[in-house]
Amino acid sequence: MTQADKDIERPLGQAVRPARRPWPRFRAGRVVAVAAALCVVAFSGAIALRERPFRNPAAIVVSTPQVEAPAQANAPEMAAAPVEPAAVPDGPSIINVNPPDGSGKGVVIIRDPSELGQNLRVAHLPDKALIEQSETGPLPVRGDDGRRPVDVYARPWSGARGARVAIVIGGLGLSQTGTQEAIGKLPGEITLAFAPQGNSIGRWMQEARRTGHEIIMQVPLEPFDFPNVSPGRNTLTVDASAEENLEHLHWALSRTTNYTGVMNYMGARFSANATAMGPFFAELGKRGLLYLDDGSTARSVAPELALKNRVPFAVGDTAIDGVRNRGEILKKLDELERTARAKGYAIGTGSAFDVTVDAVASWAQEARKRGIEIVPISALTTDPERG
Q1: Which of 196, 236, 279, 344 could pair with 252 in a Cys bridge, judged by C-beta atoms 3.0 to 4.6 Å apart?
Q2: What tens digit of pLDDT does each residue of 257-291 get?
């Protein structure tokens, strides 16, 4: 039959339908390859949209229901400052925080365990659970839950293992003008050490913590040629009884709050005497404080006693302002940088002289551009409790 005959026999009004094309066959390998490519693109986009790497905690506002706790009669007043856990979690922790305005919008904070320390917005407020009231004033103490002042009052840092430098500037509180200049000019990463003989230490502590500084207390220890060379009032001495030295230590510790530990002021003779240093370190371990040895004497028994008494410990590499000259101070700071690049970290100590403060502030700004991280002293301690 011809095509014309077929067309004649076809019912009127029906068009010729084109032949259907078969569906293309997709091979399994191609499907897997396309899916893998889409996953790579999605993952890359997620990373690109992140503001910083995982080391920086991110706060994301989400809609979460506000849970109201049932009212209790005569409920105790909440502590003024939030607290941080002393133990480092195995991974990032998620904390839900509901604001007091009743908006119902919570904040989810993803916290990296390497970033320890107090929220800087409330860092000037003491944690009541870490204070023991005494005749001399408030003393730092471990909390009933095991938290330590060295952890709670530590300034957060990145947790990275690059070249790190800690700089501790001491003598705060002795000069009102000098103290104000140091707090105002030095970047928050610089640790400040307060002299117990200073004035208005509580007020300066709050100002220092508001601007981000970690702080420690200086404790006067007996040097050689004492009392001709004297670090000041209530010096701990080799010949004094353990009880008398503890009284002097408590006086220094009670001068303010919110500090992570102590460092020696002078003390070459005292630091070399294990009998005198034993009760001193036992008290620091009991109270959860760190100890910084300025490194001025090689005969110090501090490392052994710190390990024995579970005291976080660090030793200074160099005093940066032995010569009070800007050029010489900058040379010492450059030495610290070379040390940090060689072994991973370095610690420098100095005093709150105008020339020292100006040199450190200038050097720190440039050092960051060269990849140096300025960290608080608590970040560079050897901590027997953390291994």
Answers
A1: 196
A2: 999 999 999 999 999 999 999 999 999 999 999 99
- Cβ within 8 Å of residue 201, ≥6 positions away: 172, 173, 194, 255, 256
Residue 137 phi/psi, 5-degree rounding, is: 135, -170
Q: How many CB atoms lie within 10 A of CB 20?
A: 6
Domain boundaries, the chain: 54-66+82-114, 128-380
The model's pLDDT over 304-355, given as tens digits with 9 standing for 90+, comes to 999 999 999 999 999 999 999 999 999 999 999 999 999 999 999 999 999 9
Q: How many CB atoms lie within 10 A of CB 260?
A: 29
pLDDT in tens, 228-253: 999 999 999 999 999 999 999 999 99
- With a cut of 90, say whether residue 212 has pLDDT above it: yes
Considering the entire predicted model, what is its pTM? 0.72
Which residues lie below 8 Å from residue 238, measured CB to CB, with a gap of 6+? Answer: 222, 269, 270, 273, 275, 276
Residue 96 phi/psi, 5-degree rounding, is -95, 125
Q: If you average pLDDT over every residue of the chain, what do you get?
A: 81
Q: Which of 127, 51, 65, 117 is nearest to 96 (CA)?
A: 65
Angle, alpha carbons 62-110-192 (nearest 5°): 125
Q: What is the pLDDT at residue 131?
A: 97
The pair of structure tokens assigned to 353 is 């002289």
User: Residue 201: which of 240, 175, 233 has the closest Cα?
Assistant: 175
Strands 191-194 and 215-221: parallel
Give residue 103's identity as a one-letter amino acid code: S
Task: Give the integer Cα–Cα distance in Å for 227 and 232.
Answer: 9
With CA atoms as reference, report the closest residue to 271 among 305, 248, 241, 246.
305
Helix H or strand E segment including 144 = none
- What percentage of the chain reaches a pLDDT higher than 70? 69
Phi and psi (nearest 5°) for 60? -125, 125
CA distance 125 to 82: 9
Amino acid at 379: A
Size (the chain), residues: 387
User: By three-state DSSP, how is residue 265 classified?
Assistant: strand
Q: What is the pLDDT of residues 75-101, one digit of tens each?
A: 333 333 444 433 333 334 333 334 334
For the domain spanning 128-380, the CATH number is 3.20.20.370
d(CA 284, CA 312): 9
